[in-house]
Design a protein that fits this description.
Blueprint lengths: L1 H22 L4 H24 L6 H29 L4 H24 L3
Helix pairs in contact: 1-2, 2-3, 3-4
């Protein structure tokens, strides 16, 4: 349950930053990279201290979490590039769907690698 709540908070951070940046006319791919990175850092801190309560090897865990997060950022960014720039889909719809898929992938990778005890 905590993971879900933290995930929702991360989505608020991600989509909040993304919305502000796209409103300011930052291109969708760059806005996604920046906003996803903010969400990743937010979620790592919350998950480390409240959910998984794993405080050893924090730098190594952060690097692992960040790299896994960036893998999913690449996925969402590619989705935005293909579906928004090439196929003219609405950017917010692509962001929502690709983020949902990426979140599932990220949860599984982090559960079995980053926060493995």
């Amino acid at each position: 349950m905590k993971y879900v709540l933290i995930g929702i908070l991360g989505l608020v951070v991600d989509f909040g930053v993304y919305t502000i940046l796209t409103y300011l006319k930052v291109n969708v791919e760059l806005a996604n990279i920046i906003s996803s990175t903010c969400g990743i850092i937010n979620n790592f801190l919350w998950n480390s201290y409240t959910n998984f309560r794993v405080k050893d090897h924090m730098l190594l865990r952060f690097v692992s979490y960040f790299l896994i997060g960036q893998i999913t950022t690449v996925f969402t960014t590619l989705c935005l590039f293909i579906f928004v720039n090439k196929l003219d889909f609405p950017h917010i719809l692509v962001k929502i769907i690709s983020t949902f898929v990426a979140t599932l992938i990220q949860f599984l990778l982090n559960k079995f690698f980053t926060f493995k005890k």
